[in-house]
């Protein structure tokens, strides 16, 4: 019999939990980028993710700013009662903030909409940007003129190779990861440091994740890499994309090449949220998303 941590016992997220957690997401077919084991694993040290199971629903807690919040219950079937129980548990005197479920998807909101027991608010900074894979692959049309210019300049100026990730690239990718972090001062930026550590773990344990990856080499060295996976039957999600700032257009190149090669069988690509960062918002809007996946905050009324 499968052994889940029973609610209200929450355990820290570990790599060995993948086989237990992934079936919840696979059955649910999520649209929000948080709802994958890879995403949780990447950020587990920064957000101190912990998990439990209540009546066949996966519950995840997240620490932000000294307070504990919940992610939406994941499972099939009515969730109103599960949400009520979870919010009641989150109202513990030890918690420093109002009990709250964050980054909830539209599917859950539709279940709760007619119930006046909840206060529901959209959280714009967490909306995911979703694109047509064909748009990112072809960059056709006037609106992508500047993107094609960046890509063409890269193709013209640099002698490079594009390679799907294999474990033979592990050492080179780890070296690039370290170089990228030195350049971006990961050691003094907690979020970047947590991502750096987890990215290294994912590269080292690549076979244990159902990921697709690729690199760009210039002069024999890895200067960009990216990793993604299927979020649902139609949509891939990009979890990691890093590139050297030395080479103009390299981000445009790794994005276009990865979509046209590794993601050609998908309809959509989810490139996650902008977190309210104006520069990141501008960059994501510049690729013309076809939709934004809305997310919400749920609190007791």
Structural commentary:
By secondary structure, the chain is α+β, with helices and mostly antiparallel strands. The protein has two domains: 11-127, 3-Layer(aba) Sandwich (Aminopeptidase); 128-272, Gcn5-related N-acetyltransferase (GNAT) (Aminopeptidase, 3-Layer(aba) Sandwich), CATH 3.40.630. The chain has eleven helices and 14 strands. It has helices spanning 18-28, 37-42, 44-47, 80-90, 106-112, 133-138, 145-157, 170-183, 190-204, 250-261, 278-285, and strands at 11-12, 50-54, 57-64, 67-71, 101-104, 118-122, 128-132, 160-164, 212-218, 221-230, 235-243, 268-270, 291-293, 296-300. The protein starts with 10 loop residues before the first strand and ends with a strand.
Can I get a quick summary?
With 301 residues, this protein is α+β, with helices and mostly antiparallel strands.
């Amino acid at each position: 019999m499968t052994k889940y941590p029973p609610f209200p016992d929450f355990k820290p997220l570990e790599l060995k939990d993948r086989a237990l957690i992934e079936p919840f997401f696979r059955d649910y077919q999520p649209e929000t980028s948080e709802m994958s084991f890879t995403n949780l694993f990447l950020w587990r040290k920064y957000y101190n993710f912990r998990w439990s199971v209540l009546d066949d629903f996966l519950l995840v807690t997240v620490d932000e700013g000294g307070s504990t919040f919940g992610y939406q219950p994941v499972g099939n079937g009515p969730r109103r009662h599960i949400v009520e129980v979870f919010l009641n548990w989150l109202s513990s005197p030890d918690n420093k903030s109002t009990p709250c479920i964050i980054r909830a998807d539209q599917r859950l909101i539709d279940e709760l909409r007619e119930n006046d027991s909840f206060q529901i608010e959209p959280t714009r900074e967490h909306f995911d940007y979703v694109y047509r894979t064909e748009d990112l692959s072809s960059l056709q049309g006037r609106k992508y003129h500047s993107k094609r210019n960046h890509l063409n300049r890269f193709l013209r100026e640099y002698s490079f190779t594009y390679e799907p990730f294999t474990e033979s690239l592990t050492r080179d990718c780890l070296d690039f990861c370290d170089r990228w972090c030195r350049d971006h001062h990961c050691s003094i930026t907690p979020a970047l440091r947590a991502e750096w550590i987890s990215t290294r773990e994912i590269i080292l344990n690549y076979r244990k994740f159902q990921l697709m990856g690729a690199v760009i080499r210039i002069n024999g060295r890895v200067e960009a890499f990216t990793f993604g996976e299927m979020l649902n039957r139609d949509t891939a999600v990009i979890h990691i994309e890093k590139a050297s700032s030395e080479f103009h257009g390299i981000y445009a190149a790794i994005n276009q090449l990865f979509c046209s090669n590794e993601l050609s069988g998908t309809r959509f690509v989810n490139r996650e949220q902008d977190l309210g960062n104006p520069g990141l918002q501008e960059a994501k809007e510049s690729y013309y998303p076809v939709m934004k996946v809305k997310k919400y905050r749920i609190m007791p009324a």
